[in-house]
Amino acid sequence: MPHDTTVDAPLRVEPVEPDSTGAVSTSSASATDDLRSLEAGLDRLQTDDVRATNAWRTFTTSVLPPIVFVVALIVAWQIYVWVVQPRPDIVPSPISVVTAIADAWQSGRLQTAVLTSLERGVFGFVIAVVVGTPHGLLLAEIKPLRRAVGPIISGLQVLPSVAWVPAAILWFGLTDATVYFVVLMGATPSIINGLIAGVEQVPPQLRRVGTVLGAGPARLATLVVLPAALPGYVAGLKQGWAFSWRSLMAAEIIATGGTIGFGLGSMLDQSRELADLASVLATILVILAIGILIELVFFAPLERRMLRRRGLLQGGAK
Predict the structure, then answer these.
(1) Nearest-CA neighbor of 264 among 174, 179, 191, 182?
(2) Which residues, at least 6 apart from 20, have a Cβ–Cβ distance to it below 8 Å?
(3) pLDDT in tens, 147-166
(4) Of 8, 29, 219, 296, which sits 20 to 30 A from 134 (CA to CA)?
(5) Can you spell out the DSSP letters for 18-67?
(6) pLDDT in tens, 239-275
């Protein structure tokens, strides 16, 4: 006779033993399948609840506070304009700033400036990554070279990017090469130093394992050290993008004319020449919004995915 299938709390399925003929009764197998399906369904419901809770918690703790703060700041700004009534050319109202953005959009100047600056910023940043990554690995792996060149890289990182604009204009003239050079000099040192910091945090055991498995210096650096140094490398990339965006704005504000296109920096400088403070503030807000958007859309998901895969962040890897 086959044994009866028993259910304990919480759901637990006892093993079903075959009868003397070696077969399991159909009713016992069906009951086991039903219990397993029920248990899987309960687990799925619990997982969905946890995901919904995490999504709501993320919204209330990360997304909602900045929105509330910005709305409160705009309301306070508008109330100040209503009560104090300052000169519009000194303190324009939020409505005037929004109107300036709408006018720039209708004329097409805003779209042109945003596309031009984004193209320059992204392309210049990609060049900085291509240049900075191998140099960072080289300096991280060769200690004498790092001791000789490292202080210069750190000095270049703290040097204001705007200092390169006059020299770049004399070297390349009023062309896009001037802008790309300034962006390159602003972003590359941060990428190099971030990669060096990440390599410094790689456990020595990983190098030994790679050496035991027969990896040469080049394969060890690219297949073992670089993946292990990703946290520091990603931090360097984030900082490099911030420096490249700042360098781009500085170059576009100073280097105008010639064959240089119309970017957000040029739009900002033109608004200054016209003493149009509402347009100046509108352009600043657009520049700020693009920087925040790049961080939220690209770097933040990349960093979360990397931390999840390394078990440093709660939640599954996505």
Answers:
(1) 179
(2) none
(3) 898 889 989 988 888 899 99
(4) 296
(5) P-TTS---HHHHHHHHHHHHHHHHHHHHHHHHHHHHHHHHHIIIIIHHHH
(6) 999 999 999 998 988 887 777 878 898 899 989 988 8
Report the C-alpha gap between 53 and 56 in whole angstroms: 5
Q: Which segments of the chain are extended strands (E)?
A: 7-8, 12-13
- Nearest CA to 186 out of 121, 123, 247 is that of 247
Cα distance between residue 40 and residue 36, in whole Å: 6
Domain boundaries, the chain: 7-65, 94-309
Contact criterion met (CB below 8 Å) for 259 and 174: yes
State the SS3 of 259-295: CCCCCHHHHHHHHHHCCCHHHHHHHHHHHHHHHHHHH
Q: Is residue 184 scored above 70 in pLDDT?
A: yes
What three-state secondary structure class fits 12? strand
| Rounded Cα gap, residues 252 and 119, in angstroms | 13
Task: Kindly state the percentage of the chain with pLDDT values over 70.
Answer: 79
The CATH number of 94-309 is which of 1.10.3720.10, 1.10.443.10, 1.10.10.10, 2.60.40.10?
Answer: 1.10.3720.10
Q: Which residues, in sequence order, are bridge partners of residue 12?
A: 8
Letter string b/e over residues 35-56, b meaning 16 or more CB atoms within 10 A of that residue's CB: beeeeeeeeeeeeeeeeeeeee
Assess contact for 302 and 318: CB atoms under 8 A.
no
Q: What is the pLDDT of residues 161-183, one digit of tens each?
A: 889 999 999 999 888 889 999 99
b/e code 102-133 from CB counts within 10 Å (16+ = b): eebeeeebbebbbebbbebbbebbebbbeebb
Structure tokens at 33: 């399948």
Euclidean distance between CA atoms 299 and 244, whole angstroms? 14
